[in-house]
Structure formats: structure tokens, C-alpha cells
């Protein structure tokens, strides 16, 4: 138990260090932007006096380390700044966009986990026979297929040609219109999950094959235990530790991929918010969205890392 607490403590200590590093890097890189927020807020026809007043009011003339400290002070209080002529809140914009990105990530994760689990187990149980060969080919296709390419292909087939599923439009509320919600989200989720499914299928198969070759499985089978008991109660429990860990670490990468998929399907998530900021030269919006995505990535991976310590007792001795 003491060793487990020590390992968890290391992860918790690393969290603020990585968070500061990410915010510092993003803020430093954004400081090189040639876009002046004063012109976005006041317009191109603003007088030099108005520009100077805006700079003084928002601390834009301060050195970037000072601006970073002030920004972090606001960030700790949930203030990500403002953007646009009307000074819209970046925090409110992120608050509307982040749940959409997380929903898409979660649905893609569920699809990838379920499909890869089933295919990986079937491939391992039928090792070197035609189901295994077919699944291995499909997994290679999945790994080699870019999400954005599959997204465009699905739009052409299922939306433009067959008219089965919408590729754009508003996202209905799940609780009031679950059918419309799933119709809007299913194509982006499948496009996001497809490469993950290919990767995880191979990992599940490899882990299952290694476990099936161990002596205790041969002993259990030789003792007359039913195959469903050997596989279901023993092999799966041990074989899924590695796939579950890998799947957890993929959550952050899925979230990053969701940002791109959202733009293709015009979903109101973090990707659309970044595109909006880029097209409008809104550096504060881009900076706020990038920092929130990066922090979410770090937090998710550290939480998964700590859950792995609880799931796998063997690593606690490291």
C-alpha cells in the first residue's frame, strides 16, 4: 500500500509541473503572433490613442512573462480572457464546446473498445485460421486508414449519395431527441474510432494469444474445465490488463483527433472553436482552446495512469 501511494503521489506531483509547462509553451508561442487584439476589438479604423488605451487596459504592452503571470492568475480563477469586438468570454465559449468534444471522444472510445475486444478475442481463439486471418487484414486496414479520409468518404456515401445520415446542422439534445443526436454523432464517432479499433484489435489478439499459451491454461484444459470457464474466468482477466491500459492512454489521442473530425462534420466542439479563432484572428480564443485541450489531455492520461496502478498489482513493485 505504501508503494502504491508513493507511485500515485509521483503522478499527482507531475500534474501541476506538466500543466505549467504546457501553458508556458502555448503562451510563449502565441506571443509571436503578429495579430493585435486591439484591432480585432476596436476595428481597423481605430485611432492610435484608442489602441494605446486598449493596450494599457489589457496589459498588452507588458513583457510576456508578466502577461503570462497575469494570465495564469486569471486561469486559476476560471478566466480565459475575452475575444471579439463585443469581448465575448473565452471561458463561456470553451464551456459550450468542450462537452461536445468529450461526448464525441467517449462515443468513439466505446465503439473502438467494444469492436476491438470482440475481434481480438475471436482472432485469438481461432488463431491462424480464416477468422484470424480476416480480422488481421481488417485491423491493418484500420491502422492504415486516416480518420479524416474516412470521414470525408462517409459523408460522400451516407450523406450525399444515400441520404441516410446528416453530415452537418445543429446537434440535437440527447435527452429530448436521442435518435437525432445519434444520427448526427454516429459518423464522426466511427471515423474517429476506426484507426483505434485496428490498433486495439491487434493488441487484444496478441495479449490473448500470449495468455492462452501459458502453462496454467494447458493445465486447466487438461483438467477438464469447460473452455468458457478457462477463457472467461482466467484468460480474459489476465489478458485484458495491457489492452485496458493502452486504451486508457489512447483517450487523450482520441480527444485530439476529435478536434479535427469536428471541423469536417461541423460539430460545435473545440475544433470548430479553434477554426473560428483562426479565421477571425482571435488569438485569445485560440490560446484558450489549445490550453484547455492540452490540460485535459494531461489530466486524462495521469488519471488513467493512476487507475492502471490500481488495476495491475504487479506494477506496484516497480
Number of extended strands = 2
Mean pLDDT: 83
The structure class reads mainly alpha
Number of DSSP helical runs: 13
> How would you sum up the global shape?
globular
Q: Any idea what the radius of gyration is?
A: 24 Å
Rounded to the nearest angstrom, the distance between the terminal CA atoms is 13 Å
Strand order of the largest sheet: 1-2
What letter string, H or E per element, gives the SSE order? HHHHEEHHHHHHHHH
The CATH architecture is: Orthogonal Bundle
Low-confidence stretches: none
**CATH class category:** Mainly Alpha
Briefly say what this structure is:
The protein is mainly α and 318 residues long. The chain has 13 helices and two strands.
Give descriptors for this structure.
318 residues, 2 strands, 13 helices, MetI-like fold
Give an account of the 3D structure.
The chain is an all-alpha fold. It has a single domain (92-317), classed as Orthogonal Bundle (MetI-like fold), CATH 1.10.3720. Helix content is 77%, strand content 1%. The protein has a two-stranded antiparallel ribbon with strand order 1-2. Strand 1 and strand 2 (88-89) form a beta hairpin. Helix 8 (178-212) runs antiparallel to helix 11 (241-265). The longest helix is centred in the middle third of the chain and has 36 residues, at 90-125.
Amino acid at each position: 500500500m505504501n508503494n502504491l501511494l508513493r507511485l500515485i503521489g509521483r503522478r499527482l506531483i507531475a500534474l501541476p509541473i506538466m500543466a505549467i509547462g504546457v501553458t508556458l509553451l502555448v503562451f510563449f508561442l502565441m506571443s509571436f503572433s503578429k495579430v493585435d487584439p486591439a484591432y480585432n476589438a476596436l476595428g481597423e479604423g481605430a485611432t492610435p490613442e484608442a489602441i494605446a488605451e486598449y493596450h494599457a487596459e489589457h496589459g498588452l504592452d507588458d513583457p510576456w512573462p508578466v502577461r503570462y503571470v497575469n494570465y495564469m492568475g486569471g486561469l486559476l480563477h476560471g478566466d480565459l480572457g475575452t475575444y471579439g469586438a463585443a469581448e465575448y468570454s473565452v471561458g463561456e465559449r470553451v464551456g459550450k464546446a468542450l462537452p461536445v468534444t468529450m461526448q464525441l471522444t467517449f462515443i468513439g472510445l466505446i465503439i473502438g473498445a467494444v469492436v476491438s475486444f470482440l475481434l481480438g478475442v475471436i482472432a485469438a481463439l481461432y488463431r491462424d485460421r480464416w477468422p484470424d486471418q480476416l480480422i488481421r487484414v481488417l485491423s491493418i486496414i484500420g491502422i492504415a486508414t486516416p480518420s479524416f479520409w474516412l470521414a470525408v468518404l462517409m459523408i460522400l456515401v451516407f450523406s450525399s449519395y444515400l441520404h441516410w445520415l446528416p453530415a452537418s446542422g445543429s446537434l440535437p439534445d440527447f435527452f429530448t431527441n436521442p435518435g437525432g443526436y445519434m444520427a448526427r454523432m454516429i459518423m464522426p464517432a466511427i471515423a474517429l474510432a476506426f484507426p483505434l479499433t485496428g490498433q486495439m484489435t491487434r493488441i487484444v489478439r496478441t495479449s490473448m494469444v500470449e495468455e492462452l499459451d501459458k502453462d496454467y491454461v494447458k493445465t486447466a484444459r487438461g483438467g477438464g474445465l469447460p473452455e468458457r470457464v478457462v477463457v472467461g474466468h482466467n484468460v480474459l482477466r489476465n489478458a485484458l490488463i495491457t489492452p485496458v491500459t493502452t486504451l486508457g492512454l489512447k483517450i487523450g489521442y482520441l480527444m485530439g483527433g476529435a478536434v479535427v473530425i469536428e471541423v469536417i462534420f461541423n460539430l460545435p466542439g473545440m475544433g470548430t472553436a479553434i477554426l473560428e479563432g483562426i479565421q477571425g484572428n482571435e488569438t485569445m480564443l485560440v490560446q484558450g482552446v489549445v490550453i484547455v485541450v492540452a490540460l485535459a489531455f494531461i489530466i486524462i492520461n495521469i488519471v488513467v495512469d493512476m487507475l492502471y496502478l490500481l488495476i495491475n498489482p504487479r506494477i506496484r513493485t516497480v
